[in-house]
Structures are given as C-alpha cells and as structure tokens.
Amino acid sequence: MTAGTGKDTARPELAYDVSSIREDFPIFREPVNGRSLVYLDNAATTQKPQSVIDAVTRFYTRECANIHRGVHYLSERATESYENSRSKIRRFINANSLQEVVFVRGTTEAVNLVAQTYGRTHVGAGDEIVISAMEHHSNIVPWQLLCEEKNARIRTVPITRTGEFMLDEYRELLGPKTRLVAVTHISNALGTINPVQEIIRLAHERNIPVLLDAAQAVQHVPIDVQALDCDFLAFSGHKMYGPTGIGVLYGKENLLEEMPPYQGGGDMISYVTFEKTLYNRLPYKFEAGTPNVAGGIGLGAAVDYLESIGLENIRAHEHDLMKYGTMELWTLDELTIIGTAREKASVLSFIIEGIHPHDIGTILDKEGVAIRTGHHCAQPVMDFFHTPATARASLGLYNTREDIQALVHGLRKVKEVFR
Amino acid sequence: MSDLRNLYQEVILDHHKRPRNFRRIENANRQADGYNPLCGDKISVYMRLENGVLADIAFIGTGCAISTASASMMTEHLKGKTEAEARIVFDQFHRLVTNHSGGPEFADIGKLAVFSGVREYPVRVKCATLAWHTMHAALDQKAETVATE
Question: What CATH class does A52-308 carry?
C-alpha cells in the first residue's frame, strides 16, 4: 500500500458530483474561525440541505396548524404533509405498513419506548437482555433501568481488538432466559458494521426479538427492515440530514399491537371517560401529544434528498473516502486508529501517543476542522481500548478528499504544537 | 498559530510533558478525586496540611495538556501557602480563566497567569479548573468525587 500524500492513490469513478452536492448545504458558505468549514463530525449530527430547511420553513410560513384534529384547511394540509412523511419513511426502510412507523424524538426515545413497553411486559426476574460491548449509552442505560426494576440482567457480547462483534460468544449468550437482543447496526465510536443479518437469524432461531440501533446506519447504508427481519429499528432524523428532535421507531405490527402505550395524552386515544380509555390505533397509540410536526415534515424532505442521491452511491462515496482517510492517517507517526473492523462505515476514531484528544480537537478547530473528541457516549468501548477518549472524524455524503487533507494538515499542526 | 500559542504556551506544554509533584502523598491528611465526564479526565489531589499550612501537595491522574499543566502548576504555586491563601488563589484562578472583562489585577498569581488564554476557549475552562476544584474539595475534605459537569 502507498503511504504517500494520497495523490498517487488511484481515484475511482466518483459516485456523484460532490461539489454540486455541497452547494445544497448553505452551511458550507459560512466561514468558521475565518475559514471555510471542514465538517467531520457527522456521527454527532449532519448538516442540513436547503430542501430540508425549506420544508421546515414552508410549514411554519404557510401550513402551520395542529394535525389530526382540525377541520380547517390548514390543519388538513399540515396533517397531509406530516403523514406524507410517514409514507416516505415507510418506503425508505421498506416497512410493511404505515402502522409500523412511529414518530419519536430520536433514537434514544425509540429505545426507551421499547424498554418501557415491550420490556416491562416481557422481562421478569432472572431474565436477560443481550447487548454488545460497543453500544452507545442510549442502548445501555434504558435496559439497565428496566433490569433494575425487574431484577433482570444485561449480558454483553464481547468485541475483538479490532472492534468486531464476536458471533460465537453471542451464540453462547443466547439462552432460554434471553428476552430481547438490542444491538447497534453500526458503532458510533468505532465505525464497525455489525453482521446484523446473522445476529437476527440466530436470535430468531430461539424466537428472541431483535432491536437494531440504526442511528449510525440509515444515512450510510440501504436498510430494508423486511429483508433484515428485525423486530424493532430505531433511528434519528438529525443524523440523516433531517431536523433535530424527530426520529423513528419501526416495530413489527404484531409486536406494537400487543404493547401497552408509552405515554398517555391526546392523540393516542380513541375514547376517554374517567373510568376507562380506549387507545388509538397504530401508530398513534405511541404518539401522545402534539408531535414535532415541522420535524416530521423536514425528515420527509431528508428522505427525499437521500433518495435523490441514492444510498448505494452514498455508501460507495463514503467507503472510498474512508479508505483514503485511513491511508492518510497511517502516514502520521504515533497515531493509532481505534476500530479497524473489516466492515466499517464513516468513522475514523484515533489517538495520538502523548497528546490528549481534547487538545487535538481544540487545535483542529482553530484550523477550521470540526471533529468530535471524548468518549462518544460509549464509555465501555473506551474502557475496552484502555483510553479515556478518542478523537473521531466521521464522514458524510458531502465530504471530500480535500476535507481529509485538511484533517491531516491540522494533525501535523497538532504535532508541531506538542513537539 | 499565534492564537494557539496563547493557549498552549511553552510553560504549559512543559508542565504537561513533565508534571511536577506527580505522585501520591503517603501520609496525606487531605485528599479528593476529580472527574470531568466530558473528556474523561481524572485527578486525585493529595495534601499534607500542618498547622494550617500546605506542607506538601501533589496529584496523580490523566488528562489533557491544559488540565495536567494546571494541576502541576497549582501544586507548585500552593506548596507552603496557608489554607486561607489557597482559597484566595482558587478564587483568583477561577476569575482568571473565566473573566472576559479583565477584572482586578492578580498580583500574587505569578506564573499561573499563562492560563489567561483559556478564557478564549469556553469549553476548555473545565479542563483548567478541574484540579483547582478538586483541591478545594480536599481542603473541605469532601468525600465524594468532584465532577465538573
């Protein structure tokens, strides 16, 4: 392999024209610290294309009304836009029906919803929930809360030194007490793409349902919930170029149907007296209160945007960029990449001997390069690699080789400061 | 680069590479732990307080350059000071790294003035003050871990 500047690395046919894609994102016209922005913190949140911003603005400017109850024109229009987004999302993940697409605040709420409804009715004393050692805190803590309440316990699938899910150990952990498997599709701290198809197959052999945390997956790889046969899938809008405060829980209809409501309030009911309440049909049973209407509409626009480019094209572009970035980072002495699984997406997590990630982050910021430093809400992963924190560059569909070069240039400056 | 040098001054980099008083004090009579969940920095501050005077002060832990250098220079600065003086320097240091309007002059703060650059980096203030909060907790002999979040 060539450990050069990258200019000698053969450049494959581009999946799409990145420079015109970048023009869709107004943020790249804003200078940061006097420089044009190099944004490599996409695993935290992505920037928004004009079409998403416009969809949200259009709602507040021309369609603002509450949904599902008004008889007036605007309410009908707002309801139609909001529900139209739901159908876009259904198509995007290939859910079987609209009843299976529940709007929530984000991945965290989706996981909590399943823990507090499915979990509370199916998990009892001595039961087990299987997660992996690379989970985000949002796919650990909701299960801990449930286990504390029910006197159940969490079993953790170990990972290898490269950050890969250990399938054999996983198979061993599945047993008669396992009530649910909850694993991440793609690790936010390491970039590992987990063998989710196999994970689901093995669980289903024992009739154990599987929840996939797809917060880091929906924006990078095509997802088909029916082909995967996952029972629940959770993701956030803001990591897939949509607004903050909106996300989705997909659940198989039969499971959602038998689950009790998560929160009580308006919209989730069909008939209320002081003695008894009849719950609304799916998915509204899980959507108490006025939802994030603007967010839902914006998320629909984000789905349109992703589909206009094509997830396969995005995957190819980001994959090429990640390989290039990996090669470029290797040219720096004393730098170690944390997470070197064979199947990876988007994430370049690393440490530099003798320099704390936080110092790296501050110096890169001065160079106009935005990365994330810290434990990435995955402290067990940090503990496993014996580091309190890493520096993490994470790629999105608009990143370029020039962004990677700016990162490497900034890292050389870091080393200069700490020489 | 000059901006960055304002934060990462030579003296800070030197204390980061070779932290002073980086050790446990076996016969310490005051001790506290500090933790910054944002970046995972951990520190333990040890003191030997004799007749109201800091006869010895030291620390161990892991952290970024700013937090390590701050801890190191804190121990150098406070050794031999009275408990009351240490509390005053704590206040002065806190104002030094947070006060944008300048505030009163810090006549006694000496070399610690190199940390004034931190005030331009609000997210790094917690790095600079972790050791100080921990020291303060040790003086108060609080048993629990001090967290900056």
Answer: alpha beta
